[in-house]
Design goal:
Largest sheet: 3 strands, antiparallel
CATH topology of the domain at 10-74: Arc Repressor Mutant, subunit A
Structural class: mainly alpha
Number of helices: 5
Strand content: 5-15%
Distance between the termini: 110 Å
Helix content: 40-55%
CATH architecture of the domain at 10-74: Orthogonal Bundle
Shape: rod-shaped
């Protein structure tokens, strides 16, 4: 009597086999691809996952994937607007200028 191996989830098995053979999963980055794009190691991505940082992870068996739209959202969340400091004078809480030159100018005004 021979026992036949039955696949319970053929779709997942096919995706896993395709991905391991190097075929591209539509809509996903493989961990190696994302690591290369971000110029980080796969170990860094794994560490980020364990710490709850980085893009959400999709696991299919031992295969780690990242949904492209999730990666884009995560990258967008890291964006910061630069603070425009040009043309603004630095002041203290009371509105007085800061720095040595400012103090010298203030002392000169007080002397007059």
């Amino acid at each position: 009597m021979q026992i036949e191996k039955v696949e319970t989830q053929p779709a997942v098995a096919n995706v896993l086999a395709d991905a391991k053979s190097g075929a591209k999963l539509p809509g996903y980055y493989l961990q190696t691809e994302l690591a290369e794009m971000l110029d980080k190691s796969q170990a860094t991505l794994w560490r980020w996952e364990k710490r709850g940082y980085g893009p959400p992870v999709t696991k299919i068996g031992n295969l780690v994937c990242y949904k492209i739209s999730s990666v884009e959202k995560w990258l967008a969340s890291l964006e910061r607007r630069p603070q425009d400091q040009r043309g603004r004078k630095r002041t203290t809480r009371r509105g007085r200028p800061t720095g040595t030159r400012a103090r010298a100018a203030e002392a000169a005004r007080a002397a007059n």
